[in-house]
């Protein structure tokens, strides 16, 4: 298998890993803003050797994708392989009527989950948006949900209410808050955890089988203590899925 650079371009974080013979390196990541994107690309990537392939799962704008494509072509004279969801691949059957509309990050996460676990699974990615995807034991994607992420919930209150102000990244306190900042911070987490818990309960009843939850995304460490069920934390799930896709394509 050729050496691969795997890139997960999310709304808030750019993450990458180097894969040699199917073995992934430690993951690098950086926060970026729109006006700092090119500076992000010019930073040291700490790659052991130049890659022979570059795969990208992206939820960012076409402009950012084009910037990545130009940077890859200039740096290594390679095409940028933009991963998109397929009707089926790597043991996963896409549940969308129009398969390509499923986000590349969600698709890669499902492929990774399929390899990690043999039973039914719910993948919860708690990033800028929180996505929930359910897959049965045969690898059939049954569909999912998308809601604003924890940070977006907080920002919507801070930006659209006159009397509510605070820090989007503030740490939540206990169950009940005694100040507005803590109320917003804790409320956004409880709302997300409540959605996850309810979906898991209803899907378990619908399927009639055990359902394992895999959690990834930037808010995962804050959500983990709030979820009553056993949860597997896989912070690099999308990159692991990209690695599997790379091993199954040429």
3D structure, described in words:
It is built from seven helices and 13 strands. With 250 residues, it is an alpha/beta fold. The strands form three sheets. Strands 1, 2, 3, 4, 5 and 6 form a six-stranded mixed sheet that branches. Strands 11-10-9-12-13 form a five-stranded mixed sheet, with helices on both faces. Strands 7-8 form a two-stranded antiparallel sheet. Helix 4 packs across helix 5. The protein starts with a strand and ends with a helix.
In short:
With 250 residues, this protein is an alpha/beta fold.
Topology overview:
Elements (H helix, E strand, L loop, with lengths): L3 E6 L3 E8 L2 E2 L3 E4 L5 H5 L11 E6 L3 H15 L3 E3 L5 E2 L2 E2 L10 H13 L3 E7 L2 E7 L5 E8 L1 H11 L19 H28 L3 E6 L3 H4 L7 E3 L3 H11 L3
Parallel strand pairs: 1-5, 5-6, 9-12, 12-13
Antiparallel strand pairs: 1-2, 2-3, 2-4, 7-8, 9-10, 10-11
Helix pairs in contact: 3-7, 4-5
